Amino acid sequence: MKNLPSQQALPWLLVLAMTSSVIAGTPVSWKELPEAVRATILSNGGKKGQSADMENKKINGLSLYEAPIR
């Protein structure tokens, strides 16, 4: 792959920056998480009280959550 001049690289950097902000979720505290999400986190090795991210994307009208687990 050859080196791109800085003027050509800038649009790609902007696309990457915009993509990462679209993919990133919104932090949700433990108290705000639905009970089903809390139960899923705990049953997969998560810890009570931890936060999770609610993703900006929905599948079949359902919200997606992301949380660190074991």
Overview of this structure, please?
The model has no long low-confidence stretch (mean pLDDT 78). The radius of gyration is 18 Å and the shape is globular. The termini are far apart. A hairpin with a 2-residue loop joins strand 2 (52-59) and strand 3. The protein has a domain at 24-70. It contains two helices and three strands. 39% of the residues lie in helices and 23% in strands. By secondary structure, the protein is an alpha+beta fold.
- Topology as H/E string? HEHEE
**In which range does the helix fraction lie?**
25-40%
Radius of gyration: 18 Å
Envelope shape: globular
Strand elements, count: 3
Widest sheet: strand ordering? 1-2-3
Distance between the termini: 38 Å
Mind sketching the topology for me?
Blueprint: H1 6-23, E1 26-28, H2 35-43, E2 52-59, E3 62-66
Q: What distinguishing features does this structure have?
A:
70 residues, alpha+beta, three-stranded antiparallel sheet, 2 helices
